[in-house]
Structure formats: C-alpha cells, structure tokens
Specification:
By secondary structure, the chain is an alpha/beta fold. It has 7 helices and 16 strands. Strand 8, helix 3 and strand 9 form a beta-alpha-beta unit. Helix 2 runs parallel beside helix 3.
Length: 319
C-alpha cells in the first residue's frame, strides 16, 4: 500500500505496534505505551484485550479537558514501568541518546516521526561541509551569519524555534552546525540539554534560550543577526513564558514573514512541521513559496507518518 508519506527509516528503539479506535500502541525501547491518537479512526488490529495484556503505561484523557485541546490526563502504569527512561537513535548522520518521560499531556519527550526531518537537517548541513571541503574551503559554502555568544567560524548557523527536547537541534549540531535553540518552556530546554549531554554534544556550539519565539525573532531583526537555516515545529496551541497565547492558524504566517528577515542572503533551508489538521501540506507550501520568492530554490511539501507493524498501514502524523 503506497500512500506517499515520508517515514523515518532508522529507528531500532521505536516501533508503532498498532493503532486504531483513536489510540496508538508504541514501543519505546523495552516499554509499550498506549495513548490517544486522533488520526487512528479505524479499528485496532490487535484488539483491546491484547493491548491491555502487553501495555506498560496507558494514558487516558481527563474528560474535563483543559487549555491544550483536552489532552491533559493521567497514566496507569504496570509494575516496573519507570517515569523516565532512555532510548537511542542511530544512523550514519548521528548517534543520539534521548530521555523519555511520562507527562500530564500524553507526550513522552520525542515525536518519533521527526527522525525523518532530523535526517534531512543533518544531510543538508553535511552537504555544505562536504562541498566546502571539496572546494578546499574550511568554512561553510553558504553565507555565514553572525550571532552573539559562542560561535564556530564557518559553521552553518541554524535557528530552531519551538525546539522542544532538542531532536532537531542535536541532529544539526551532530552534523557540524552552530545552533540557537529556542523554546518557551524552561523545563523543555533543560530536558534538551540533558539529551545533548547524553549524546556527547554537551560542548557543541548550541545556544540554549528560554524565550517566546515570536519576540525572540523580533529582537534578532533589531540586532541584525541572520541564520542560514530555520527550523520550526509550532504547536497548534501554546503559551509563552509570560502567558502569551499562540494559535497556529493566526500566528504562523506573521512569524514566517518575520523569519524571512533574519535569513542569510543564500539560505540553506527553512523547514516547517505542523501537526494541526487545519494546515494541509499545500497551505504550508504556498505560504513559504510566497514569502521566500526572492531566494533561489524550491518549496516541497509532504505528509509525514509512521509505519504500523500490525497491519502495514502508515499513520499520518503531520505536514
């Protein structure tokens, strides 16, 4: 069955075992986790009894909901299931160690489908390094942007907005980029630093910032700083460190327009990921193509997904 979704290829410590009935059953390392999944509208292949027999942690939504789409809830744990544990992601481009944890909003600290984007990011950064080496230049083949703080001369400058626990940050850093990591949650930035240290990237040129992403970009415009690549994985709904409200349908286009003002003259890439069902891949394509038409290059959009072991389907996970 071919549905044309982009899927990650390198996972050993992750597997989507089954999904259906608006839930998914996933293996993270040695543990099986069940949690809500709004895209899984079909029936489970393994059945409820098989899920309950095998699962180590089961998340159920709080029916009272909350201010994040009703995803707040609680976990039911089998004996021996830890609150935190580690898994690895290894490929030719990177060797990452990532801490997982059971949060009150059903998340565990990574979005496994994003490994496809990690490989794209690392591949783009490494391509620049290889091109530079082939030309006899020790530095970047693209325009290098200055930034305050620690810097690596000639490195590709990457800005990661809504950076969460740092998978994309670490992929870029492992490939040799100098990264500015921005997230509104202090806890998530701390978590990302732990992942960097565990992955042998504690001393990599990464600037860790707890900040509202829009306000940070506005300040970077005033400071005259620029980046060769921008990554953003915005939530459908969120709050900044001072309670600022973010709604993707209202805020994404103005933010993209702001970000084009901090791109270098010959940027490497601008990668947006979206989970909301309201923004189709074509919408993201038109938005980027309109705002970046002054640059050479092209805009491409795809759905991203995860293969389901039990039935051969691919679960759509975003644009």
């Amino acid at each position: 069955m071919d549905v044309g979704l982009l899927i990650p290829e390198g996972w050993n410590d992750y597997e989507l075992v089954d999904c259906g009935g608006f839930e998914k059953l996933e293996r993270f390392g040695r543990y099986l986790v069940a949690r809500p999944e709004p895209q899984a509208v079909w029936d489970k292949s393994l059945g409820d009894k098989e899920w309950l027999r095998r699962v180590d942690a089961y998340f159920r939504r709080d029916p009272r909901g909350g201010d994040r789409g009703g995803e707040r809830g609680e976990w039911t744990l089998r004996d021996g299931m830890p609150q935190q544990w580690w898994i690895g992601y290894r490929s030719d481009a990177m060797d990452l160690k990532l801490r997982l944890g059971l949060t009150a909003f059903k998340h565990v600290g990574i979005f496994p489908e994003q490994a496809a984007n990690w490989e794209f990011i690392a591949g783009q950064v490494r391509r620049v390094a290889e091109t530079s080496a082939g030309n006899g230049n020790p530095g970047s083949a693209v325009a290098v942007a200055g930034r305050p703080g620690e810097n690596v001369s000639g490195a590709v400058q990457v800005l990661n907005l809504f950076a969460y626990t740092g998978g994309a940050t670490l992929a870029a850093a492992a490939a040799g980029a100098s990264v500015t990591h921005v997230d509104a949650s202090k806890g998530m930035v701390t978590w990302a630093k732990e992942n960097a240290a565990a992955s042998g990237l504690a001393d990599a040129p990464i600037r860790w910032l707890v900040d509202d992403c829009v306000k940070f970009v506005e300040r970077e415009i005033r400071r005259g700083n620029h980046y060769d690549a921008i990554i953003m994985d915005p939530p459908s709904y969120g709050r900044g460190p001072k309670g600022e409200i973010w709604k993707i349908e209202d805020a994404i286009h103005p933010l993209v327009k702001l970000c084009t003002k901090i791109l270098s003259d010959d940027p490497l890439f601008f990668l947006i990921n979206s989970y909301t069902t309201g923004l189709a891949p074509a919408v993201l394509t038109y938005m980027l193509a309109t705002e970046m038409k002054k640059y050479k290059g092209h805009v491409d959009s795809q759905e991203i997904g995860l293969p389901v072991k039990s039935n051969g389907l691919v679960l759509p996970c975003g644009a």
